[in-house]
Structures are given as C-alpha cells and as structure tokens.
Amino acid sequence: MTDSSPTIASALFDWNSPRMRGRFVARHKADRRLQIYGLTAIGTAVLLIAILIGSLVASGYHSFVQTHVSFEVFVDPSKVSADAPEKGNYRNIVRDSFTAAFPDATSPRDKRALTDILTADAPYIIRDRVVADPSLIGRRFEITMPVSDPFDQFEKGVIPRDVPEEQRKVSDKQIVWFDALVAQDRITTPFNTGLFLNADSRFPELAGLAGAIVGSFYALLVCFLISFPVGIAAAVYLEEFARKGRWSDILEVNINNLAAVPSVVFGLLGLAVFLNFFGMPRSTPLVGGMVLSLMTLPTIIIATRAALKAVPPSIREAALGIGASKHQVILHHVLPLAMPGILTGTIIGMAQALGETAPLLLIGMNAFITSPPGGVLESATALPTQIFIWADSPERGFVARTSAAILVLIGFLIAMNLVAVVMRKRFERRW
Amino acid sequence: MSDATQIAASAPAPVATAESPQPTAVAPGTGAAAIKILARDVNVFYGDKHALKHVDLDINEHQVTALIGPSGCGKSTFLRCLNRMNDVIDGCRVVGSIKLDKADIYDTSLDVVQLRARVGMVFQKPNPFPKSIYDNVAYGPRIHGIAHNKADLDEIVHRSLERAGLIKEVHDRLDSPGTGLSGGQQQRLCIARAIAVNPEVILMDEPCSALDPIATARIEELIDELRENFTIVIVTHSMQQAARVSQRTAFFHLGDLVEVGDTEQIFTNPKDGRTQGYITGRFG
Amino acid sequence: MVDQHIVRQFDEELDELRATIAQMGGLVEQQVVDAMAAIARRDDLLARRCQEADVEIDAMEDKVEALTLRMLALRQPVALDLRAILAALKIAHNLERMGDYAKNVAKRASALAHLPEVGAVNGIVRMGRLTHGIIKDVLDAYAEPNVDKAVTAWTRDQEIDQMYNSLFRELLTYMMEDPRNITACTHLLFVAKNIERIGDHATNIAETVYFQEKGTRLQGMRPKGDRTSYAVVTPPEADEAS
Hints:
The structure holds 3 protein chains of 3 kinds. By secondary structure, chain A is mainly alpha-helical. Chain A contains 16 helices and 3 strands. Chain A has helices at residues 18-60, 90-99, 108-115, 122-132, 149-155, 172-183, 194-197, 210-241, 246-258, 263-277, 285-310, 313-321, 326-354, 358-362, 383-392, 396-427; strands spanning 68-74, 140-146, 187-188. In chain A, strands 2-1-3 form a 3-stranded antiparallel beta sheet. In chain A, α1 (18-60) crosses α16 (396-427), α2 crosses α3 and α13 (326-354) runs antiparallel to α16. The mean pLDDT of chain A is 87. The longest helix of chain B has 14 residues, at 150-163. Chain C has one domain (2-225): Methane Monooxygenase Hydroxylase, Chain G, domain 1 (Up-down Bundle), CATH 1.20.58.220. The termini of chain C are far apart. Classes of the chains: A mainly alpha, B alpha/beta, C mainly alpha. The B-C interface holds B 15-16, 19, 21, 23-24, 239-240, 243, 266-270, 275-277, 279-284 and C 1, 3-7, 10, 76-83, 214-217, 219-221.
C-alpha cells in the first residue's frame, strides 16, 4: 500500500486488497469475453453472408456483360420488296451478309455453322431495322448484335478450349472463325443492358428481366393499394376505437399469427378463391398483388399499431383538452406523427412481398412471356418467379443469368430497406 | 329623553365595537363572488378503487382556486372531472353532480367537445403540438370555427400570445416550431393555445412543476393577470405556490376534501388538524 | 402540536425558541421578585445587582429576534408554526420591557433606601406580589400551552389596575399630609406605575398566547380598570389636618 496511490479511505473496506484486485481483474476479463462472443457472432454472420453473395457474384457476374459481334449487312433487294418489308427472306440476308467475310465457308453446312455464331434472333433484328426504315433496302449498313449463347460462354471462358471437341458445344472450325472475328476487332463485350431492358426469351443471350421487373412492379402496386389503406384503417380502429377486452385480445392474437402463416398457404388461398371461385385471370399482377396484400396486411397492421402506440399520450391529451373530437385527434395529430413509423413498416412489408415466390407460383405468375405486361390484367412474371423459371433451364447462359437475377433482386431489397432505414433516421423524434 | 339619547349617541363609547363578533370573519375584499362550477357529492372510481369520496366544492368566478394535498390524494382526479378528461381513462366512473353555470356537465345532451372548449386545460409537462407556433395557437379556433377568415385568425393568435406574455419573444418567428422554445416559453404557448378558444375556465395541472423558478414566477404573474377574465383552478404540489397565487384553497387527503377556505385563513389558521399537519410539514 | 415535523431540525429550532423564552421569562420573574424585595427590605445592594442583571435579558431578546428571523427566512412557516414564531417575537419584546421596568423599580429602590420609610410600601409590595403571580401564570400558560390560564391571567389585570388606583390615592394623601413624604412618595408613585406597566405587558403576553393557540384575537377590549387619569383627590378639610 503506497502512499501515492489514491485509495478510497474506508474503515471497513480495503479496495486494494489482493482479493479485491483479483475480483476487478476477473470482472474485466468477463467484459472482454462478452465482447469477444459478440464479435464472433457478428463475424460468423458476416462470413455467411459474404459466402452467399460471393458465390452469387462468382457465378453471375458474367451475365452483366454480353458478347456482341459487328458486321456489315447488305439488304439484298431481291430478297426484300419495298412494299412488304416485313415479309422478306431475312434469314438468307443474314446468312449471306455474315458469311461474306469468310470465303472459306462454302458448303451450306459450313455456312450454317458460321451463322450459328450469331444469335438466333438475328433475322428478326434485321427485319425490325428494315421495317422501321425501308430506305435501307438495297443498301449496306453496319450492325452490332449479340452472339449466340455458346459463343458468349466461350468468349467468357466458361466453355474451355482445351477439352475434346465432342465435349463442347462449339466446334473447332467455329473457334477458328470466331478467333478471326476477334482478330478483326469485331467482337465486343459491353455492359449487358439487355438484362434489364429485354423480356424473357428462349435464347439466353437475349433474355432479360424487363418483364419480371414490370410484373413485380404492378403486383407490388396492387398490393400497396390494397394493403396500405386497409392496414392503416384496421390498425387505427384496433388501437383507437376498439374497446379493450377479450375480443380485442383474440383479434390481436389472430393478426399476429397471420403474419407467421407460411406464404404457400396464401398461394393456395389465392388459387382456390381468386382463380377458381371468382374466375379471375391467371398469372396476372392483379391476382398476384391481391395475394401479396393478404400477406403484407398483418405486417402493416402491426407496424401501424406500434407507431400509433409510440405517439406520446401528452399530444392526445393536449388535443383532447383543446376540444378536438376523436377523429380530429387521430387525423390531425396521431396519424401524422405516426406516419414515419407506418411508412417504414410499409416499405419493409413491400420488400418482403417483393421476394415472395411460393404464392406467385401457385397463382401462375411464372408464365413464359416475351414482352413486359402492359397492365395489371395481362399475364406476367415477377422477379422471384423469373428466377425460378431460369433456374430450371439447361442452357449455360441461364445459369449465370439466374445468379445475376438473384443479385438484382437482392439489390432491390437492399435499396428498399435502405430507404426505410434512412427514413426512420430522418423522421425519428426525440420526445 | 331625546336629548339624553342624543348625548349618549354622540359621546365616545367606552367599549369599542371595532372588532367583529366572530373571530374568523369573511375575508375582506372578496365580497360575494358568483359560483362558476358547483360540485356536489362527487365520487370517482377507478375500477373498484374509490379514488374520490363525496366531494362538495364551489369554484368562484374570476378567482384562482388551488387544490393541494399529498400525492395520490385525488386532486388531479377531481380537476380532470371538471372537463371530463376522465372519460378517456378506461374503467373510470364518475358519480355525482358537477354543474358549470348551472348546467350539469355529465348530462348526455351536453357536447363534450364544446365543454372542453369552454373549460380549457394546461398540463404538467408542456406539450405543444409539433407544429409552428402560429398553428399551435390557431388549431383550437380552426377546429371550432371561431375565426371567420385569415385576418380574424391572425388577430386571435396575436391576442392570445399577447395575453400569455409571449408575443414579444416570438412575434418574429411565428412559423418556427413550437417545440423549439424553452420550457417556460412552451408552457406559456400552451396557455396561449388554451385561451385562444376563449374559455370560461382554465384548469392547470401542476403547470410549473417542470419549470425553473424564474419561469415559474412569470407564469404565476400571468395567472394573476388572467384571473381578471377567466376562472382558474390550479393543482399544485407547492404550498407556497398555492399561497402566492390563489384566493381559495382546498385541501385533499386520501380522496376526501378535508377543508376549503380563503387562502389566507387556510395558511394562518386552518380549522382541520390534517390541514395543519400537511401545510406545516408534519406529514406528507 | 403533538406531531413532529418531518424535518427534525425545524422542531429543534422551535424548541430552542420556546426554551429561550422560558429562560427569559424566568429571569424577568426573578427580576421582579428581586426588585420588590429591594423595595421592601430597603436593600441597596440587591437593587444594584438587579440593575446589572438587566443586560442578560436584553441579550436574550436579541437572540430570540435572530432565531425568528432565521426561521422565517429558511422555513417558510405557515399556520401554527408561523403564529408560534411571531408570538415568540412579541413575547420576547414584552419580557424585555418588563425587565426594563423592573430595572427602573430597582433604581428607585436604591433611592428609597436612603429615604425615610413610608407606610404605603406595604401596598406596593402587595401589588408586586399580585403582579408576580400573574407573570408566573402567564409564563406557565405559554410553556404548557394552556389557553384557559392565559385568559384567566388576562382578566386579573383588572385587579392590578384597581390596586394601582387605590395606591395612587393613598400616596397622594400621604403627600398632602406631610410634605416631607413627597420625595419618597413620588418615587413610590413611579414604582407603582412601573408595576402597573409590568402587569400590562404580562397581559399582552396572555393575549399573544391566546392568539398563538387559537389563531384569533381575544374578544372585546381588555377591561381597563385604570382610572388614575381621571383621578381627582381633594385635600382633606382644614379641620381634619392634624
């Protein structure tokens, strides 16, 4: 016991005895242990997420670029007539134009093999250009279009060169022609805007998420329009008007349970009631939205009730004391103050609805459609169901695109949750 | 005979009659005040708990009546009966008669919303709406339709802020949020908000308990000024505040109204031993 | 009040106040007794001691005043406590005046010791004894406290006044009888007046005790029996003079 150490003088208690010092050390050690447990837990969680995202990125990053080839097209007037441009023999035009650069492809088989480098949609692409601008008939123009999926995979290194020819989709001859195109600087790999702008297609090189994104958007719109007002009104009634008693308790338990019901059950419900009983059109965002709204409703009700409860009673009392009637208190004071919490809950509910697959599958929103839906009553897919469809397809291109689509979906979810978090922070009030 | 009586009358009487016969005379200066609120046999139950027992109390017009008593004695409960704020509490039952200007306020034909405009309330913790200062004061007149146009509303807001002693401090920032003011200013804003609907009675539930002494003093001064135009009932924990601010004081204890009288009499010579014990700090 | 304050120190201060008054009262009582004894026994030494002792009484009044000031500032007393503190202040003042009058009596006792005896001294001594009784009763009434004792003492002031009346006349006749008595009788007149004033102050204390306990003033006016202001004594007839 040195004189210089600041001891807390006490006749009964010696803070500096070895026993007490030992206790302090043990307690600090326990603090450290708790910290380490927490860090370990967080580390594990982050690691798992990193593995998930990492594997998705690894398998899907290819899809964000698409190999294109550029070549000169000669629109032979003998194959196309000016008064019916859509009826021309564009297949021949494509074949002739493309093979013109390769004099050693003479036999029809070779020409077909060479043309296989291009996307199968090539004739239609040319046709659309000529129909849009008939003055191109008889002229030459440069066009850039995607290559077919095997060559896209080959260029990206997914299909290796060094396996025997029987084990790959591209033949040696085709590789030679392809390398020639590369040497001529005709092969480019720009960002795959088609992934976001094209609808689904049989051909992976042309397949995109546009249809799914629009379909999801319409479904979410319907879901929002139904569940937001109904949810808020229900929550306001339960919180403000319903008399507290056995019935309101039962109701509360049921609503909480509804939030835990597996989503597939809602799908079955939608199938049985909306599609079979009411005869509504299958695969439409309308029905999809209605089913999703059933699932989002409990979330919004619970979030709204929590937000309403969080409004301090002093505001209600102040409004009541001034002579406001009940509905004025709710509309003028409670709801505006609860709105940030309500919106946060709604956004989170919407984000959940965006990712729901099972109910949409059951009501048929996995239709194969090649153009984005124009309205809520047209057949459509949604992002999660599109992923489901692509995951089933055998082409290599779809493998990568499935992962890419998952990443896009996750991106949307993160963005929506981020908006919710930012909103919550901005509007958080300290009473 | 008449001469004698004249002389007797003019002679200075040896026994003075300056002292009035009763020791506790009616407090000088109050005169006969009109009764604004008449409470008779008021009982309040929270479920089974009998919180307020057989309270008879008169609130005089244009006076400040203070309700004092230890915690849980029922004074706030009684205050909240006067504007039926107890209605919003589940399980609260009020029995008895409370008359505002001879009309029973618990009568079903009386509109609660209108009652609360006539009997305003200021709360313990200042609770301005999270709106601008202008909107805070204008809210009451708006929902009751008191103002006919914007100019009227401006005038009402201006006058209320002036009466509440706040106008000088906020006249140039009426659009800034009410919650940005200091505690004392917020409470004065709440008072302005209450008087904007031109009530007849203002109820105050410990209005200064969250404020510092200077802010408290300003509000007490304000209460004294408001007395001219309004009837005020104030619940307070501070006996000194009750002594400073009120003309009549009522002492509650364990749900009973123990004693009510002129403030001066209560604080110099209370009749009931429990009152004496409480105000001198012998129990609390 | 049976109950104690929640703040114990408040009670301690009130007790100190009461104790100081009691002490002061005891001193004053003793002063009165001593002063009267000095008159009766023509004891100059006692008279001088009595005069010196008055300083203590003044010091105690200062102490009471300081205590009441402190308690008023720090305790914000109301009701009973406020009345008790104000009562203590007033009673201390009355006791101080009584002490002063006793001192004056003692001064005159010194003078009287050097003058020829006068028969009226007996009357003065009786008056003094009566006054002492009232002082004792009043101080008891304060200490217990006992309102009835205070009221009883209050009414007995009349007796002192009556005694004063008769003493006044008696002394006047003595003076008219023999001019050599004038000096002594004049002193005795002042002594009687002082004792009567002591009695008045004791009555004030009784009224203050009543106010402290009841919170109201004693009803009516104090029955004043002092008629000396109107007293007219005519000299005895020439043939009665010896």
